[in-house]
Amino acid sequence: MTLEEKVGKTLPELGVSDAQGVESLFAEARAAMEAERQALISRGAANEKGHDQECKTLRDRWLARKGGLVSLIDENWLKKATKELKPVVGREFNQLRPVAAGLEVQALLLVVPVRTTQTISQAGRIPSAEAFGVATVSHDLTLPGYRPPLGSIHPITQVLREIEDIFLGLGFRIETGPEVESVYYNFDALNIPESHPSRDDWDTLYVDERTVLRTHTSPVQIRAMEKHGAPLYIIAPGKVYRHDSPDASHSPMFHQIEGLAVDRDITFADLKGTLDFFARKFFGEKIRTRFSPSFFPFTEPSGEVSISCVICDGQGCRTCKESGWVEVMGCGMVHPEVLRHGGIDPEQFTGWAFGLGVERYAMMKYGINDIQLFYQSDVRFLEQF
Ligand code: 2NL
After folding, report:
1. Is the minimum distance from the CB of 175 to ligand 1 under 6 angstroms?
2. Could you please report the per-residue DSSP string of 79-91?
3. pTM of the full predicted structure?
4. What is the pLDDT of residues 348-375, one digit of tens each?
5. Which one of 18, 55, 87, 274 is at 20 to 30 Å from 374 when CA atoms are compared?
6. Residues forming beta bridges with residue 352, ordered by sequence position
7. Residue 329 backbone dihedrals phi, psi, to 5 degrees
């Protein structure tokens, strides 16, 4: 006999005459309700379109005032129960209530958004229904839904993007390239001589004799010159590697942004104007810049850029070693030999370039004194940004 047929009959007609019989009959009804609810939830995930209608159909089948299974149970089993059995039938009938609440349309519809949340979870795994507090009959369904905890953008990424945005605003494009690089692109094309100390095993991580982990992002710029030719306005952000032991100011991996402008008649004045504009955008309009002579094999002339100390405003303090100035990047006019290696004629084009370390900028911006904090994935550190 199906459940539909059973609810149409009275208890004596069903041959139920004791408490045990009543209990097993109601257990069957509760199990059927729960099974139909579960089946609908599974189908709802596969096809959300018809889900609303199915929710209503299921609700009406059990809970409709006229002809619903629960109302028939009330009518035929409870109201027509013998005096002796009435208390146990009443108690069992009351226990249908919490299960029936799970069939209310609001309860069933709630299941859908919760499942959607699971599929967009960034955890990389599907959390269990329990972890998400999926609507079950014992929960207060009027409470707000589960909100997955939001992460934040890593401070290095934030600063990278901030610097990128300033140069994008000036018309530069972003170029990227391999972190495992040939000795040719990392050193030779940049006019760095065989004997240069940066090329030895104690400064560079070699994969094999002709392959290194790039020590700067300059090789990206050589590749870009070869690929696009001049005029060229690019920045090259990314990870770089050095044979260094980690300490408060060193890391074997860190981030660099290099910039390159190549065009007809590019001068040192363009370099100064651009980098001064950049420094004021990043550090604030009050900042002053200072250019002093330096040396790099890939630029001639070469310079380093200092900014007036953000801590003491140029008065002299511990951070700027009493000088009032803090060095923030290296720069220079691209060496003609380097342009030639990029396939650009130095008789027709000139260019300038710069390089900066992103970690230093993030440390200055946020007042961080240990570079290692960026790599330890300590949520207490990261959630501050
Ligand atoms: C520093 C110095 C610098 C460059 C990087 C460069 C790239 C090409 C050609 C010429 Cl393809 N120059 N890059 C130039 C001057 C300085 O970085 O101290 N970086 C942290």
Report:
1. no
2. TT--TTTHHHHHH
3. 0.66
4. 999 999 999 999 999 999 999 999 999 9
5. 274
6. 261, 333
7. -170, 165
